[in-house]
């Protein structure tokens, strides 16, 4: 770890998930009665201009172009798609507004040592970590993800969220009856962290782990520190068919072809890279080399405010790299391809019968459904279901689908000028706070907490 001073911040930032976690405590859900959503539908075989997605008992039970006659139909006039998957983040730190880096850095170790960063991010985080109840920051960040259409995130630490069911799926933790993912923020330096890394490699070899997230070579191409880190990664045998390289912005074309040949996947966060280093990963080359590429919004100090915003940065950057991407392929980077990278493509990333009903409905402003998703921002989100649970929706839709349910965790919000309703009760347990309570706890300790609806 290259931080200057040890403390709660460094511990939380560097904490990966290298050991198998126990299953979280789950709650009994009061799922909505069976219903169908009507609108444009993005299916595994293409986009339909008009289709019906039926949900019952938490699953998708029917996907068809004909109207069902046995369930209530909600006319959305929107675009229905799988819940978005954000494959790189640090949710505990997404309570801050964007940080303005005062200069460009050669690698991530440089900005982690910088005084401006310590003053604007590290020190306030040390305050929050010691003055607000555990999980408060993660819950706030999960709401931020949810209202942007995200139903699964990577990067929440096991210490902050593993003991209870999350508001959005923590896809590198317990998922669908098993914990088969692992993550590390830093590659081992010398013997520090080496036993944990070797333990993960052993589980990969045994077939127990199908997704290993690792920050690697995050910096500018030509940076000597990043180049040495990449060589150490290869020497340690870290390049496997389940390794998800996060960032890799310093990797050359040859480097990318090397890891592509070894079966690695890439998780790309261009906004954060561009703001900190002035350049980003050669993602177009990675795609051309056959690497599956998924997106992550990283964290608010340097990343995008939402995964939808990150998609726009990725699209522009791929065009600049001479590798323009089709709208359908960009959508896949946050749905079907992301699910494959996460090792969860049997469950997530597609609207298909038998899958968990993780669904998003967006306002429709473009005739092409894929293009509509690429143009969307969080204000277009009309409804989010996770496992058939209506967690966030237009207030009128929420009332209709939930039979006007009430609870201390259900509250009305004005989101970008639109009346919406949120249920934080998906988190589980008897002591789940509402968003208002979480916001009050955070701003009481640190008034400059970044807003969600901005």
From TrEMBL:
Q: Give the Gene Ontology MF terms in alphabetical order.
A: hydrolase activity, acting on carbon-nitrogen (but not peptide) bonds
Q: Highest taxon of the source?
A: Bacteria
Span of the signal peptide: none
The record's keywords, sorted A to Z, are: Hydrolase
Q: Residue limits of the Amidohydrolase-related domain?
A: 244-389
Q: Entry's InterPro entries?
A: Amidohydro-rel, Metal-dep_hydrolase_composite, Metal_Hydrolase, MTA/SAH_deaminase
Entry-linked Pfam families: Amidohydro_1
In Swiss-Prot or TrEMBL terms, this protein is called Cytosine/adenosine deaminase-related metal-dependent hydrolase
Q: Which organism is it from?
A: Humibacillus xanthopallidus
Its lineage opens with: Bacteria, Bacillati, Actinomycetota, Actinomycetes, Micrococcales
């Amino acid at each position: 770890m290259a931080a200057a001073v040890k403390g709660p911040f460094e511990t939380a930032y560097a904490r990966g998930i290298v050991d198998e976690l126990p299953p979280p405590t789950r709650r009994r859900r009061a799922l909505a009665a069976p219903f169908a959503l009507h609108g444009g539908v993005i299916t595994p075989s293409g986009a339909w201009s008009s289709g019906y997605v039926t949900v019952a008992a938490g699953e998708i039970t029917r996907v068809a172009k004909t109207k069902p006659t046995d369930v209530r139909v909600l006319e959305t006039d929107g675009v229905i798609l799988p819940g978005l998957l954000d494959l790189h983040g640090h949710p505990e730190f997404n309570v801050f507004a964007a940080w303005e880096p005062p200069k460009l850095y050669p690698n991530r170790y440089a900005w982690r040592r910088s005084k401006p960063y310590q003053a604007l991010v590290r020190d306030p985080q040390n305050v929050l970590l010691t003055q607000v109840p555990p999980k408060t920051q993660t819950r706030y960040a999960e709401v931020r993800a949810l209202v942007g259409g995200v139903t699964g995130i990577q990067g929440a630490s096991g210490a902050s969220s593993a003991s209870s069911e999350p508001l959005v799926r923590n896809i590198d933790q317990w998922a669908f009856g098993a914990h088969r993912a692992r993550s590390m923020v830093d590659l081992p330096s010398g013997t520090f962290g080496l036993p944990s890394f070797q333990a993960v490699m052993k589980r990969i070899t045994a077939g127990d782990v199908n997704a290993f997230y690792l920050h690697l070579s995050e910096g500018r191409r030509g940076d000597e520190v990043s180049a040495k880190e990449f060589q150490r990664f290869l020497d340690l045998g870290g390049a496997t068919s389940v390794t998800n390289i996060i960032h890799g912005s310093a990797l050359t074309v040859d480097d990318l072809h090397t890891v592509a040949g070894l079966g690695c996947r890439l998780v790309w966060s261009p906004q954060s890279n561009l703001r900190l280093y002035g350049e980003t990963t050669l993602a177009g080359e990675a795609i051309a080399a056959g690497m599956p590429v998924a997106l992550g919004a990283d964290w608010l100090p340097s990343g995008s405010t939402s995964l939808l915003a990150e998609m726009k940065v990725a699209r522009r950057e791929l065009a600049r790299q001479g590798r323009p991407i089709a709208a359908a392929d960009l959508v896949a980077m946050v749905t079907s391809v992301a699910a494959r990278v996460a090792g969860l493509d049997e469950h997530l990333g597609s609207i298909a019968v038998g899958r968990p009903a993780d669904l998003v409905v967006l306002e429709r402003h473009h005739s092409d459904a894929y293009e509509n998703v690429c143009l969307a921002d969080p204000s277009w989100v009309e409804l989010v279901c996770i496992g058939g649970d209506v967690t966030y929706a237009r207030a009128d839709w929420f009332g209709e689908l939930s039979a006007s349910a009430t609870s201390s965790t259900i509250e009305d919000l004005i989101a970008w000028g639109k009346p919406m309703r949120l249920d934080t009760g998906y988190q589980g347990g008897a002591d789940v706070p509402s968003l208002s309570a979480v916001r009050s706890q955070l701003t009481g300790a640190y008034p400059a907490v970044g807003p969600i609806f901005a």
